[in-house]
Structures are given as C-alpha cells and as structure tokens.
C-alpha cells in the first residue's frame, strides 16, 4: 500500500504530494508538479513507517 506524503517544493515553496512505497527506502529525482524543477527525494522507512524524508534542490 502506498502512502501519500505532503511537502514543500524547495524551489517554488508550493505544497505538493507524492505517493511513497513504505516497503523500500530510496533516493531518486522527481520533477515538481507545479514548477517542473528537479527535486532529489530521499526516503527512509523503518517497520513500514516513514522515518526520514528529504526533498532537496539539485545544484546545477
């Protein structure tokens, strides 16, 4: 089951949401649905609970 997580875009500061898979911790790039800038998303789950989340701008 996917979990919905809300956070602020590090570029435009709009609140956006994404679906996270609690069965795996990961790091990947996803574009903001509002401003389309790339965001480095890092998730960490422990016992299927979100233990850490980071949405960082990608330095160009």
Could you walk me through the main structural features you see in this protein, from its secondary elements to its overall organization?
- Helices cover 0% and strands 60% of the residues.
- With 60 residues, it is mainly beta.
- The protein has one domain.
- The strands form two sheets. A three-stranded antiparallel beta sheet has the order 3-4-5, with no helix packed on it.
- The chain starts with a strand and ends with a strand.
List the helices and strands and how they pair.
Blueprint: E1 3-8, E2 15-20, E3 26-31, E4 38-46, E5 49-57
Antiparallel strand pairs: 1-2, 3-4, 4-5
Keywords, please?
5 strands, two-stranded antiparallel sheet, single chain, globular, mainly beta, 60 residues, 3-stranded antiparallel beta sheet
Query: How are the strands of the largest sheet arranged?
Result: 3-4-5
Quickly count the domains.
1
Helix content: under 10%
What is the β-strand count?
A: 5
Our Rg estimate from Cα atoms comes to 11 Å
Helix/strand order, N-terminal first: EEEEE
């Amino acid at each position: 089951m996917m979990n919905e997580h809300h956070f602020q875009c590090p570029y435009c500061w709009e609140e956006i949401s994404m679906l996270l898979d609690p069965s795996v911790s990961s790091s990947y790039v996803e574009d903001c649905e509002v401003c389309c800038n790339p965001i480095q998303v890092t998730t960490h789950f422990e016992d299927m609970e979100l233990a850490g989340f980071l949405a960082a701008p990608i330095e160009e």
